[in-house]
Automatic annotation (TrEMBL):
It comes from Rhizobium fredii (Sinorhizobium fredii). Residues 270-289 are annotated as: Disordered. This is Methyl-accepting chemotaxis protein. The keyword Membrane applies. It is found in: Membrane.
Length: 649
C-alpha cells in the first residue's frame, strides 16, 4: 500500500462501497424475482389446475345425467337433446382435463383420470346407450336402465372421488407453496437488512481504519517531523522517502528540507549573500511544503467529515468544496460513490414500497375472497337443505308410485277374473241358446202332435156323424179333443214365438257378452301396459331418489370444502397482513437513510395497481344445480324462477 497513490487508495475504498452496493441490489433483485416467480406459479398453475379439475368433475357428472336421460326418456327431441348434452359434457371434460394437465405437467394422475373418464363414457356406458337408443317398449327400457345401473353407473362415484381427492391435494400443495414463499419473503427481508447494515458497518469501519492507517497517521508523523526540523533539529531521520505515493513525495520534500538544512550548516561560514539566498530558498520550500500539507489536511478532514455523515446514514452528503488539482479526482469519485449508493438505497426503498403495495393488494383480495367464500358457503348450506326437502318429496313420490303400481296390479287381476266370469257367462248363454233351440224343437213336435190330434179329432167327428145318434157322444168328445188340440197348437205356436224371441234375445246377449269379454281383454292389456309404465316410473323415481341423495352428499361435501376454503383464505389473509407489516418495518428501516432530492425525484412513481383477475368468474355449480332441479320438477317457468333467484347469489 505504501507504493499506491492516495487517489488509488481512495478508489479502493470507494470501489468497496460500489461493490457492496451492487451486491446488495443484486441479492435483493434476485430474491424479489424468485418470490414473484413463486407467486406466479402458485396463482397461475396450481390454482388453475385445481379449478379445471373441479370443473371437469362437474362435466363428468353432467355426462352421467345425460346418459340416464337418454336411456329413460321416450320423447325423440328430449333424447336428441340429452345426446347433445352428453357430447358437450364429454368434450368439456376432455378439454378441462387437458388444460389442468398443461397447468400441472408434473402431475401424472390427471391424464389417468382423463383416460378413466373417457373409458367410462365410451366403453362402460356404450352398451347401455346402445340399448337405450333401440328401446321400443317398457321392458326394453327396463333392461337398458338395468344395464346402466350395473355397468355404467358404478364407475362414476369412484372416479369423482379420485378427482376430488387430487383437487384437494393440489390445493394443499398451493397452500404449502404459499407458506414457503412467505418464509422466503421474511427471510429475504431479514437477510437484506442484515447484509445492508452489516456490510455498511463493515465497509465504513474498514474505510475508517484504512484512511487512518494509509493517510492520517503518515501525515501526522510527517507533520511532527517537520516541526522537529523546523525547530532546528536536523539529526532525526526522515521516514517514508521510499514510498511512491504523495506522502512519499512529501517525505522526499522534507528530506530535501533536511538536506538543505545540513548544507546550510556547512555553508554557514560562507558569505551573507549565500546565507540569505539559502534562507529564502528554505522559506520558499517550507511554505510550499506547508501549503501541500494544508491541502492534504483539508482534503483528509473534509473526506473524514463526509465519511462520518455517511456512517450516520446521511446519503445526501456531498463534498462541494473543490480540492487541490491532484486531489480533485478523489472528491469526484467519493461523490459518484455516494450517488450510486443513494440510487441503490432508493431502488431498495422503491422495491420495498412495491412489496408493501403488493402485500396490501393480496390482503385486500384475500379479504374479498373470504367474504365471497362465506357467502357461497351459506348459499350451499341453503341448497343442501332444499335438496333434503326435494329428496324427501321424491321418496314420497316413489312410495305413491309403488302404491299406484300395486293398485294397477290388483285391477289387472280383477280384469282377468272379470274376463273369466264373462267367458263363463258366455258359455252359460250358449247353453241357454242350445236349450232354447231344443225347446223350440220340442214345441215343433208338440205342434205336429196337436195337428195330428186335430186331424184325428176331425176324422173322429166324421165317423161320429156317420154313426148317427150312436156317435153323438163320441162326436162331442171328438169336438172337445179337436178344440183341445187347437188350443194346444195355439199355445205351442205362442210358446214357439216366445222361444224364438227369447232365442233372439239370448243371441243378442251372447254377442254382448262376447263384446264385453273382448273389451275386458283389451282393458286387461291396457292395465298390463299401465302396470309396466308404473314399474318403469317407480324404477325411475328410485333412480332419481338415489341420484338426489348423491347430489345431496356432493353438495354437503362442497359445503364443507367451501367452509375449509374460507378458513384457509382467512389464514392467507392473516399471512398477507403479517407480510405487509414486515414490509412496512423494512420501509421504516430504509426510511432512516436521508436521500437527496435528485435521488428521490429519480425514483419511479408508484401507483396503486388495481386487482385485475386473470379469468372471468365461472358459473356457480350450485346455480347450475338449482336450474337443473327446477327444470326437472317444475317445468320451464320454475326453472326461470330458480335462475332469477340464483342470479342474486
Amino acid at each position: 500500500m505504501k507504493n499506491w497513490s492516495t487517489i488509488l487508495k481512495m478508489l479502493v475504498i470507494l470501489g468497496a462501497f460500489g461493490l457492496f452496493s451492487l451486491g446488495t441490489g443484486f441479492y435483493a433483485s434476485i430474491q424479489i424475482m424468485k418470490i414473484d416467480g413463486g407467486y406466479s406459479n402458485l396463482l397461475v398453475e396450481q390454482v388453475r389446475a385445481a379449478q379445471n379439475m373441479a370443473s371437469a368433475g362437474r362435466a363428468l357428472q353432467r355426462a352421467r345425467a345425460a346418459i340416464a336421460d337418454s336411456i329413460m326418456l321416450t320423447d325423440p327431441k328430449a333424447v336428441e337433446q340429452a345426446n347433445s348434452e352428453l357430447a358437450g359434457a364429454k368434450q368439456t371434460f376432455s378439454e378441462l382435463m387437458d388444460v389442468a394437465a398443461q397447468a400441472s405437467p408434473e402431475n401424472k394422475h390427471i391424464p389417468e383420470f382423463k383416460q378413466a373418464g373417457l373409458d367410462i363414457l365410451e366403453k362402460q356406458c356404450a352398451r347401455a346407450l346402445d340399448q337405450g337408443s333401440k328401446t321400443t317398449n317398457a321392458m326394453e327400457t327396463m333392461s337398458a336402465v338395468k344395464t346402466f345401473a350395473t355397468e355404467c353407473q358404478p364407475g362414476f362415484p369412484q372416479l369423482a372421488e379420485q378427482i376430488v381427492t387430487e383437487t384437494r391435494t393440489l390445493e394443499q400443495a398451493a397452500l404449502k407453496a404459499s407458506d414457503d414463499l412467505t418464509i422466503v419473503s421474511t427471510s429475504t427481508s431479514n437477510n437484506t437488512l442484515l447484509i445492508l447494515f452489516g456490510g455498511l458497518a463493515l465497509v465504513l469501519t474498514a474505510s475508517y481504519f484504512a484512511v487512518n492507517s494509509w493517510i492520517v497517521k503518515p501525515i501526522n508523523a510527517l507533520r511532527d517531523l517537520m516541526a522537529v526540523l523546523a525547530g532546528g533539529n536536523l539529526d532525526v531521520d526522515v521516514e517514508g522517502t521510499e514510498r511512491r505515493d504523495e506522502i512519499g513525495k512529501m517525505a522526499a520534500a522534507v528530506q530535501v528540507f533536511k538536506d538543505n538544512g545540513l548544507k546550510a550548516r556547512e555553508l554557514e561560514g560562507q558569505s551573507e549573500e549565500m546565507r540569505a539566498t539559502a534562507e529564502r530558498n528554505r522559506q520558499a520550500e517550507q511554505e510550499r511544503t506547508a501549503r501541500e500539507a494544508e491541502q492534504l489536511r483539508l482534503a483528509t478532514s473534509t473526506l473524514g467529515d463526509a465519511l462520518k455523515r455517511l456512517a450516520h446514514g446521511d446519503l445526501a452528503c456531498r463534498i462541494n468544496a473543490a480540492f487541490a488539482a491532484e486531489y480533485e479526482p478523489l472528491r469526484a469519485d467519493f461523490n459518484a460513490t455516494v450517488d450510486q449508493l443513494s440510487r441503490t438505497i432508493s431502488a431498495v426503498a422503491v422495491s420495498v414500497h412495491s412489496m408493501d403495495n403488493g402485500t396490501r393488494e393480496i390482503s385486500s383480495g384475500a379479504n374479498d375472497l373470504s367474504q365471497r367464500t362465506e357467502q357461497q358457503a351459506a348459499s350451499l348450506e341453503e341448497t343442501a337443505a332444499a335438496l333434503d326437502q326435494i329428496t324427501a318429496n321424491v321418496g314420497n313420490s316413489t312410495k305413491r308410485t309403488e302404491e299406484a303400481r300395486t293398485v294397477a296390479s290388483r285391477a289387472n287381476h280383477s280384469a282377468v277374473h272379470s274376463a273369466e266370469v264373462v267367458s263363463q257367462a258366455e258359455g252359460a248363454m250358449n247353453k241357454i241358446e242350445e236349450s232354447s233351440q231344443q225347446i223350440s224343437n220340442i214345441i215343433g213336435v208338440i205342434d205336429e202332435i196337436a195337428f195330428q190330434t186335430n186331424l184325428l179329432a176331425l176324422n173322429a167327428g166324421v165317423e161320429a156323424a156317420r154313426a148317427g145318434e150312436a156317435g153323438k157322444g163320441f162326436a162331442v168328445v171328438a169336438q172337445e179333443v179337436r178344440e183341445l188340440a187347437q188350443r194346444s197348437a195355439q199355445a205351442a205356436k205362442e210358446i214357439k214365438g216366445l222361444i224364438q224371441n227369447s232365442s233372439a234375445d239370448v243371441g243378442s246377449g251372447v254377442k254382448l257378452v262376447r263384446d264385453t269379454g273382448e273389451a275386458l281383454k283389451t282393458i286387461g292389456g291396457f292395465i298390463v301396459e299401465i302396470n309396466a309404465h308404473m314399474e318403469a316410473i317407480a324404477i325411475s323415481a328410485r333412480e332419481q331418489s338415489t341420484g338426489l341423495a348423491e347430489i345431496n352428499t356432493a353438495v354437503n361435501q362442497m359445503d364443507q370444502t367451501t367452509q375449509q376454503n374460507a378458513a384457509m383464505v382467512e389464514q392467507s389473509s392473516a399471512a398477507a397482513v403479517s407480510l405487509a407489516q414486515e414490509a412496512s418495518k423494512l420501509r421504516d428501516l430504509v426510511g432512516q437513510f436521508r436521500l437527496d432530492a435528485a435521488a428521490q425525484l429519480s425514483a419511479p412513481a408508484q401507483t396503486a395497481r388495481a386487482a385485475t383477475p386473470d379469468s372471468k368468474p365461472v358459473a356457480s355449480p350450485a346455480r347450475a344445480l338449482g336450474r337443473k332441479i327446477a327444470g326437472a320438477f317444475g317445468g320451464k317457468a320454475t326453472a326461470a324462477a330458480a335462475a332469477e333467484d340464483w342470479e342474486e347469489f
